[in-house]
Amino acid sequence: MNDPSNPAACLLCLVRHGETDWNNERRLQGQLDIGLNATGLLQARAVQRALAGMAFAAAYSSTLARAWATAEIACARLGLAVSPAPTLRERHYGVYQGLTTAEAAERHPQVHRRHERRDPDFDYHGGETLLDFAARVMEGLDELANRHRGQTILGFTHGGVLDIVYRAAIGSGLEGPRDFPIPNAGLNWLEHADGAWRIVRWADARHFAQSLDEFAV
Predict the structure, then answer these.
(1) Contact assessment for residue 166 and residue 202, using Cβ atoms and an 8 Å cutoff
(2) Residue 96: which of 125, 137, 74, 116 has the closest Cα?
(3) Which of 8, 69, 96, 214 gets the most CB atoms within 10 Å of its CB?
(4) Contact 36, 11 (CB under 8 A)
(5) Domain 10-216 has CATH 3.40.50.1240
(6) Are 22 and 29 in contact (CB under 8 A)?
(7) Closest by alpha carbon to 30, among 40, 20, 39, 38?
């Protein structure tokens, strides 16, 4: 998986952060800085083992704690320093951050309705619109890919970012419901060539099958 099919392409492995308590509560984290829980730490170590022996030119991470901790653990045996990439940060959800869906529906019903519609121009009263978020994510990834042509790199990020990347790679719109998986600590391989992204392998979680005994502890 380490060699792009096109020698001028960039091969990118994007990893979602490990689990947090708020993931379990289905509480929207956005840009609030929530750390990994015990399972998330185990997942990050599973990623470390999955990446062992692979060669990467560089590693980048969102600066939010849950992604940064996942990156530092995963890269510990690769001999790579993790570089900050703010464009890999999760979307800012304004007043929706910190709430479950039920809480948001009760406290901010109009905001909730627009959230459910995936309104591309809505900023959650102080957050990012979906259009601005998508532009920020893809411009940042394009810049990294162009910087690392012909190389393989790592990125650590969030579910919302991966949602944008998947849609961009398959050419679907932003407004439709999500119908693809984005597991915590899953490996998502993409290739960037000739100005376009394509999916090589998505939501690879085979490394967890090798860690069942540790997860059961």
Answers:
(1) yes
(2) 125
(3) 96
(4) no
(5) yes
(6) yes
(7) 20
Strands 187-193 and 152-157, bridge-based pairing: unpaired
Return the domain boundaries, the chain. Answer: 10-216
Catalytic residue among 19, 90, 128, 191: 90
Q: Are 129 and 123 in contact (CB under 8 A)?
A: yes
**What is this structure's pTM?**
0.94
pLDDT score of 58: 98
Residue 172 CB contacts under 8 Å (≥ 6 apart), including other chains: none
CA 107 – CA 99 distance, rounded (Å): 9
Q: What is the pLDDT of residue 210?
A: 62
Q: Helices in 117-205 by DSSP H: which ranges?
A: 130-147, 159-170
| Of 17, 115, 148, 158, catalytic | 17
Pairing of strands 187-193, 10-16: antiparallel
pLDDT means per 10 residues in the chain (217 residues)? 72 98 97 98 98 96 98 96 98 98 96 96 97 98 98 98 98 94 98 97 89 46
Name the pairing type of β-strands 10-16 and 82-84: unpaired
Q: Which pLDDT value is given to residue 5?
A: 59
Q: What is the pLDDT of residue 97?
A: 97
17 is catalytic: yes
Is residue 90 part of the annotated active site? The answer reads yes
